[in-house]
Design a protein that fits this description.
The complex is a heterodimer. By secondary structure, chain A is of the alpha+beta class. In chain A, about 20% of the residues lie in helices and about 45% in strands. Chain B is α/β, with parallel strands linked by helices. Classes of the chains: A alpha+beta, B alpha/beta.
Chain lengths: ~500, ~150
């Protein structure tokens, strides 16, 4: 205990010489003390006199001779100075003790802050316009060609470290949807156009507003006892693609997410267990690995797995962070999609039948590559998926009057992005070009084709990015003379908080 | 009595001057070797610059014992912090701020804490790791695991 105190004293001695906060505190005290002493000659001096002289040194007698008075006075003054110094030292010691207590409180507070409930997130606001240069175009009347402001994301994370190894995290996205969801397009046969009505009345205040939705993006409990092993249980983001886990709009270079993520090749999030780890072969390299076991996909995968077959996946990533930065990785996934209908067969006796109406097996593999050399970044990803239907559980073709079903199919997508940070020290602006290839699922409304994109990403500061992009989507599919090509000009202000 | 007051004022004045003189190097601290240190009970013997970088960027978050690594920076805008950022993290302050803002969303991790007395903190916390100038580090109280020569 004594040794510990000695060492602490040693630390405090060092810190009183060197640590800026402590220095500042002491200096501040001294400056304040000095200021008081000079501003008010009696203030500190009087206190010292009161504390040390008045009580101990008797007043000289009025009739004592001058020499005696002088000698006594010198002695008294010498004693007083020593006492005064002692008093100042004592004050300094007290102040140092107070500073140490503050430092300990600061250390405790800093450690406690790691375990406090944390709330953070991101917001992005966009302005975009669809342009259909080539006409006639199948998208006329389908896409909104008027220029539009839109709130893209408002995501909020809530996180709490329960212990050093346990934590809980939830991420929700607040949405205006289902506003503007079109239920039916009108047609000449008499079908009325129907849009989802989300208007409701706020009776206390007497006005109407549109209610919105909340999407639970991820929510999990994590146990992370070592670098080599951790496990998340709940709904977690699938560890594929650079911009799936890392989905903050200030990080994603373009505005729109690549089709590779949104095209349902691999579920962006899964409900189940994710066991993962990371090894560090050297100071500049790391290998991340993990296994996923989940309900897979389905109409209510977060809630009910409608078959007993669990989806499995595995990822392996390598990262090098040296004179260049390199990230490569792969994720493989295999799971079953099952949809059922529950129908009453009879009410008395009660008999409900569960009937599988759609079932298929999904197999997918993805690969990612990212290279940063000086101010140049090259990023590319690829995903390929195979869908194999169970024989009598195929998806019915779009025309319900025909006895036609979708075949098994392969779908795939890739993108390549090249970005360059302009050589301005104080301004982080990255122009970029991007190419995307899309070969979607047969039932997907997105056409097969290519996207050619140019844009600028300006990272204004750590919290904010401003982006502008223009892209041309060149669809392979046409219907007669109609094209499905389109162009989009898009701007985004993204903020993390 | 007047002599007492003069002495006390002179003493305080000297301290005031000393304080003023001492405060100058805070603004423009001269470069010195940086020592990275851990708690004496930590079994780790040495670290490389790259490993320290991994730790302070929270790529590596656990000691081999499984305990969380508690990285502790000195306060912002101190010469030592800037030198460490430049020599070890290989970043500017803007890049570091951006890194942590992105890391928060990607890995849900917040930046290391900043404390005034890093020596006291590392001495008090078994999982702590921090750094200081060679001339300042109290070697009897912490374990040195890396020396980074001044450029």
């Amino acid at each position: 205990m004594k040794n510990r105190q000695k060492e602490l004293d040693a630390i405090n001695f060092h810190c009183s010489q060197s640590t800026p906060t402590v220095q500042h505190n002491i200096i501040l005290l001294l400056v304040l003390g000095g200021t008081i002493a000079f501003a008010s000659p009696s203030a500190l001096g009087q206190d010292i006199q009161n504390d040390s002289t008045e009580a101990e040194v008797p007043e000289p007698a009025a009739d004592t001779n001058a020499e005696a008075v002088s000698t006594d006075a010198d002695t008294t003054e010498g004693d007083t100075t020593a006492a005064e110094n002692e008093s100042l030292k004592q004050q300094l010691k007290e102040q140092q003790d107070a500073i140490e207590q503050l430092q300990d409180a600061q250390i405790n507070a800093a450690m406690e802050s790691e375990k406090k409930l944390k709330i953070y997130g991101f917001v992005d606001v966009r302005w975009y316009k669809f342009i259909l240069f080539e006409k006639p175009n199948m998208l006329e009347g389908v896409v909104n060609q008027h220029n539009t402001f839109v709130v893209g994301h408002w995501n909020m994370f809530i996180e709490k470290h329960l212990t050093d190894t346990f934590r809980v995290l939830g991420e929700v996205r607040f949405l205006f949807q289902p506003m503007d969801e079109i239920i039916d397009y009108g047609d000449p046969l008499g079908t009325q156009f129907k849009r989802w009505n989300v208007q409701t009345g706020d009776h206390p205040d007497g006005y109407y507003f549109n209610w919105g939705g909340i999407s639970i993006e991820q929510v999990w409990v994590e146990y992370h006892p070592s670098n080599y092993f951790g496990v998340k249980v709940g709904k977690f983001f699938t560890p594929f693609s650079s911009w799936n886990l890392d989905h903050g709009p200030t990080v994603v270079v373009p505005i729109h997410l690549p089709f590779l993520i949104t095209g349902k090749f691999i579920p962006v999030a899964q409900t189940g267990i994710y066991a993962y780890g990371r090894a560090f072969p050297s100071g500049s390299t790391s290998i991340s690995y993990g296994l996923t076991l989940s309900n897979g996909t389905g109409p209510s995968a977060e809630f009910h797995d409608l078959d007993d077959k669990k989806a499995i996946g595995a990822h392996l990533d390598f990262s090098y962070n040296g004179p260049i930065k390199l990230d490569v990785g792969t994720y493989v996934y295999m799971g079953d999609y099952t949809d059922v209908e529950n129908n009453f067969v009879s009410y008395v006796p009660l008999d409900v039948e569960e009937k599988v109406v759609l079932a298929y097996k999904e197999k997918a593999i993805s690969a990612k590559f990212k290279l940063e050399v000086a101010d140049v970044m090259l990023q590319s990803e690829y995903v390929r998926g195979l869908v194999e239907y169970k024989d009598d559980k195929r998806l019915h073709a779009l025309d319900p009057t025909m006895d036609e079903y979708f075949p098994d199919f392969v779908h795939q997508a890739m993108y390549a992005l090249l970005a360059y940070r302009l050589p301005f020290e104080s301004v982080n602006i990255r122009p970029f070009v991007m190419y995307e290839y899309m070969e979607p699922a047969v039932f997907n409304s997105t056409p097969m084709g290519h996207i050619y994109e140019v844009g600028i990403n300006w990272r204004i500061n750590a919290y904010t990015a401003l982006k502008v992009e223009f892209y041309h989507a060149n669809a392979k599919e046409t219907s007669g003379e109609n094209t499905r090509d389109f162009e989009v000009i898009n701007t985004q202000l993204a903020v993390t908080y | 009595m007047q002599k007492q007051q003069k002495t006390s004022r002179a003493f305080l004045f000297l301290l005031f001057i000393a304080g003023t003189l001492q405060s100058t190097p805070l603004e423009a601290e001269s470069l010195d070797d940086i020592l990275v240190f851990v708690n004496p009970s930590n079994s780790i013997r040495k670290l490389s610059v790259a490993e320290v970088r991994q730790i302070f960027l929270k790529e590596k978050t656990k000691w081999s014992t499984g305990n969380n690594i508690l990285c502790i920076h000195p306060p912002q805008n101190v010469g030592l912090r800037n030198q460490f950022r430049s020599q070890v993290l290989d970043m500017t302050q803007e890049e570091e701020d951006t890194y942590w803002q992105d890391k928060k969303i990607r890995d849900n991790l917040s930046p290391p804490v900043s404390l005034g007395n890093t020596y006291r903190a590392v001495f008090s916390l078994r999982e702590g790791i921090s750094y200081g100038y060679r001339k300042d580090v109290p070697r009897s109280a912490v374990k040195i695991v890396l020396v980074i020569p001044a450029h």
